[in-house]
Q: What sequence folds into this?
C-alpha cells in the first residue's frame, strides 16, 4: 500500500459509503482511478468486506478492551474463534508471545462480569487484563419503519447505490437520499469498511502506553497519536480504570515499528511503551449488529 491507499482506507473506515466522485475531488485523481485502487485493496484482502452497525448509545452498550496472556498451547486461529464464541466479543486477534487482544460490548455490570469470567475460563489463558473503555458512544435516534426499510438491503451490501436501494425498497431515489442524509446528520448508523491490516505486507501492532496523570489526560495522548501518526494510527482504546491507552497502528516493516515505538516513548507525557505485533484477526457479529437485525425483522 502507498500513502494514498492508506488515506482511502481511513476514509472508507469512517464511512464506507463515500463515493468514488467524492474521493476523486478530495485527492485530485479520476473516479476510475479511485475505483481501481479500492478494487485492488479488496482483491488483496486488505478490505475484507463492509458492515453497518448501530452506535453504542443506540443500544445502551459499553465497550471493553482485553489482553489475554496464554501458555501458547492452542492454535492461533482456533483460539481467536474460541474468544469470538462469546456473544459479547466483536473482534479478536492473535499477537506475539501468545497474547490475544479483543474488543467486546456489554450492557451493565452483570454482562461485564459474564464476559470477564468467560475469557478467564478459556483453555490456555493464564491471565486476563480487561479495561472498560472511555469513548464517545454516539447519539440516539428514533429509527422509523421507513428507516429500517432502507437499512434492510444495506445489510447485504452497505455500499449499495441509491438507485439500487430505491428499486429494492419501492421508495423514490429522492426519499432514499433524504433518509440516508438523516443517518449521516444524526450519526445514528455507522457504515464501515472491515480492514485486515495484516494483508498486503503491512504489519499491524499494538502499543500499550502509560502516561503521567499529573500533566496529561487520555485525550492529550489520543489526540497526539491521531495528529502525529495520521497514516499509521488506526484505533485508540483508553482505559477508564487507569492511565493506560492501547493504540492500534500499522507499519510497513519491523524497522518502522521500532522507529514508531521509540518516537512515542520520547513524548514528554509518556512514562512507558510496550508493543505487540499482530497475527490472525477476525470480526464477529455482536449485540449491536444482532439488535439491528432484530429491529429490521420486527418492523
A:
Amino acid at each position: 500500500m502507498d500513502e494514498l491507499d492508506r488515506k482511502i482506507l481511513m476514509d472508507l473506515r469512517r464511512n464506507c459509503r463515500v463515493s468514488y466522485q467524492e474521493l476523486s475531488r478530495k485527492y485530485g485523481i479520476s473516479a476510475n482511478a479511485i475505483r481501481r485502487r479500492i478494487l485492488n485493496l479488496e482483491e488483496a484482502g486488505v478490505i475484507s468486506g463492509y458492515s453497518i452497525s448501530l452506535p453504542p448509545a443506540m443500544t445502551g452498550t459499553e465497550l471493553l478492551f482485553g489482553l489475554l496472556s496464554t501458555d501458547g498451547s492452542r492454535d492461533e486461529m482456533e483460539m481467536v474463534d474460541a474468544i469470538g464464541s462469546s456473544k459479547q466479543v466483536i473482534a479478536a486477534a492473535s499477537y506475539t508471545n501468545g497474547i490475544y487482544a479483543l474488543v467486546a460490548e456489554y450492557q451493565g455490570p452483570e454482562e461485564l462480569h459474564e464476559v470477564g469470567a468467560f475469557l478467564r475460563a478459556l483453555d490456555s489463558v493464564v491471565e486476563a487484563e480487561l479495561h472498560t473503555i472511555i469513548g464517545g458512544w454516539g447519539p440516539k435516534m428514533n429509527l422509523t419503519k421507513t428507516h429500517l426499510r432502507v437499512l434492510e438491503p444495506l445489510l447485504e451490501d452497505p455500499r449499495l447505490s441509491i438507485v439500487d436501494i430505491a428499486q429494492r425498497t419501492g421508495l423514490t431515489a429522492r426519499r432514499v437520499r433524504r433518509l440516508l442524509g438523516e443517518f449521516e446528520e444524526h450519526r445514528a448508523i455507522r457504515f464501515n469498511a472491515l480492514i485486515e491490516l495484516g494483508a498486503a505486507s503491512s504489519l499491524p501492532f499494538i502499543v500499550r502506553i502509560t502516561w503521567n496523570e499529573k500533566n496529561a489526560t487520555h485525550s492529550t495522548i489520543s489526540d497526539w497519536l491521531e495528529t502525529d501518526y495520521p497514516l499509521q494510527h488506526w484505533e485508540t482504546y483508553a482505559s477508564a480504570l487507569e492511565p493506560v491507552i492501547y493504540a492500534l497502528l500499522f507499519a510497513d516493516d519491523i524497522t518502522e515499528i521500532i522507529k514508531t515505538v521509540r518516537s512515542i516513548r520520547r513524548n514528554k507525557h509518556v512514562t512507558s511503551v510496550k508493543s505487540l505485533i499482530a497475527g490472525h484477526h477476525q470480526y464477529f457479529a455482536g449485540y449491536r449488529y444482532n439488535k439491528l437485525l432484530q429491529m429490521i425483522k420486527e418492523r
Notes: The first helix runs from residue 3 to 14. Residues 95 and 278 are 4 Å apart (CA to CA). The domain at 203-279 is CATH 3.30.70.1060 (Alpha-Beta Plaits). DSSP finds twelve helices and ten strands in the chain.
